[in-house]
Amino acid sequence: MASxxxxxxxxxxxxxxxxxxxxxxxxxxxxxIGIDIYxxxxxxxxxxxxxxxxxxxxxxxxxxxxxGGLGPTIDDATREAVAAAFDTELNYSEELWQDILRFFNDxxxxxxxxxxxxxxxxxxxxxxxxxxxTAPAFYIxxxxxxxxxxxxxxxxxxxxxxxxxxxxxxxxFQSEETIAVRTLHTFGLGESVVDEAVSDFETWANPTLGxxxxxGITDLRMTAKGMSRIDALVKLDDLEHKIxxxxxKHIYGVxxxxxxxxxxxxxxxxxxxxxxxxxxxxxxxxxxxxxxxxKPSSTVNEAAFPDEKKFAEPALAPVDQIVLYxxxxxxxESLCKVxxxxxxxxxxxxxxxxxxxxxxxEEYYVFIALETLRMAVLDEV
Length: 381
Fold this sequence. Notes:
With 381 residues, this protein is of the alpha/beta class. The protein folds into three domains: 3-172, 3-Layer(aba) Sandwich (Molybdenum Cofactor Biosythetic Enzyme, Chain A), CATH 3.40.980; 178-254, Alpha-Beta Plaits (2-Layer Sandwich); 259-380, Maf protein (Alpha-Beta Complex). Helix content is 35%, strand content 29%. The protein contains twelve helices and 17 strands. The chain has helices at residues 11-14, 22-32, 47-60, 78-85, 94-106, 154-172, 191-198, 229-247, 259-269, 284-287, 308-312, 363-380, and strands at 3-9, 36-43, 63-67, 90-92, 120-122, 126-128, 137-142, 145-150, 178-187, 208-214, 217-226, 251-254, 273-279, 299-301, 321-332, 335-343, 348-355. The strands form four sheets. Strands 2-1-3-8-7-6 form a six-stranded mixed β-sheet, sandwiched between helices.
């Protein structure tokens, strides 16, 4: 399996003025054609540092992709850096210059003199025509390795990767191997609890398992390499089955599924009506639920102190109904208290949680309520 590294170039990226979205797109595309990713990095607009990074990456991997630094200005240093890394000179191409002129003429614009810089490429480079911008991309092959230089403008980068770069790499590294990724989502268990349940799987070499946590959600990211896509997916299916046997219904979704989407689907599929009484939440919980599953009696009450009996001694709900009481009360500047009662026809459960509003968004208590609702529906059926 071929290996790769990505170098994002631009001082604006290092200064935090611009976010590097290019790398994520390239990573996903490389994974689809079975090219392994060793490392990504960001380098400022400095010829020598870029050249050093390219040389170091080429010493480790088969494919190096750079983004950025192909514009017309003095600080666009990628062309010079690539030439230095490959110990060659820049060469002017009249054909590239005519392409650039056509680009401007088609848009009834005049090029600046510095646009001519973009017609220079390293001597051994093969240009990749950029139909939607003035910066030609290019690639250089040497010793069975390849460097591909792409513009930093995201729309241009995506066009060139999707329409040209992937095919270039497929031809050079012909293989049916692929990498497949799947992510399982849990809420409320805590990363340490999830880790304890599945830690033995985290030592596997293929497929691999990694955890990440944010605001109560713990994701389990599974990655499998296979001789074909089907082979990789079979590996993922096997690992997912084993994980589900341990975490069960605590897994609420897969990949792009969100907790609100899943809760709405589960409630509808089981023909349950939900009544929500929420205090101090600005109606956030009810707003995440579909009108068709909410009873008209659902209310938003901004009273600071609701009827404590509804929390302490809630009545059971009618069959096929769930009543949810949620009270969020900030007891001090850095501490909020969430009190929640969920009543079904079989049981009622109380839950109290504390969170720091300076560290957690409103989604935290919304997700506490939604996950409680989801679990109540599953327990009811």
